[in-house]
Amino acid sequence: MTEPQGRPDAEPGRIPEPWSPQSGQIGGWHPTPPPGAPRPYLYKPEPDGTQPPRGNNKQRWGRAGGGAAAGVGVAAKAGLLAKLVVALKASAVLVKFKVVLSMAVSVVAYAFIFGWWYAVGFVALIAVHELGHLVVLRALGVKVSAPTFIPFMGAFVSMKSKPKSVAHEAIGALAGPAVGTLGALATLELSNAFNSQLLRALAYTAFFINLFNLVPALPLDGGRVAGALHPALWIVGLAAAAVFAVLHPTPVLLIVLVIGGFELVRRWRTRKWIDAAYYAIAPATRVGIGIAYAAVAIVCIWGINIAYIPRH
Ligand SMILES: [Zn+2]
Question: Residue ranges of the domains in the chain?
Fold first, then answer.
């Protein structure tokens, strides 16, 4: 079969990859609640004040100011330390330090809105999700960067080499929500053990974020899983993202719509005639990934219902 002339993808030397470094970011994204917006998954303190209080506006601003001061302090120390590390050419240390710094920046940013303990727990639960990607992708022989945290967006690890197949890509993608959901279950268990509403709210948020990442739209994890199930799911996922974006426009959803739209077109065009081998998948593998995907989603939906804290 010959490809039509003038098709840019068909030019010699310009063979598009179904996977590229640009599309290699695999992350735990979350819809960003605007400051002060009532969202079901926001931490709500108990009226009796047994939990870390959110405080009135004055107290909250005081805490936010403290957060900013701490942030400046951290940044100042960070600058010095980074120079020292570069001078010593300790690249391994630098990589770890960058991870810690990006996590710290995220914690400070979230603390402005949610308070310190919630912010720490929130970033830790995103880190658990990222760790799932990292460990499984590396086990599958994919080169993966350390996680980068972006305040109010989530976090991602970058794949520096292409997975062997769409099945490997899907397994690496599903590992994030799967391990992230285990983290949410552990948090829920701890919330019962310590009777902590804060931990309960964190568990709820973690279930929610891991479920959100299963929406089958690229570049979300669910979009990568969908590639191994049926590509038509990409259209379903993108349509779902479009509906969410109309109801609750957030930066993450807009990114999903733009990148997801481009990725959909690119992958759809290349999957049959350029990268058939990459997208080839054994039926049993497809079914296994489908069952695992559904199982994680069901646990997340169950968790969201169990961990829900009614408003008072
Ligand atoms: Zn992820």
Answer: 118-307
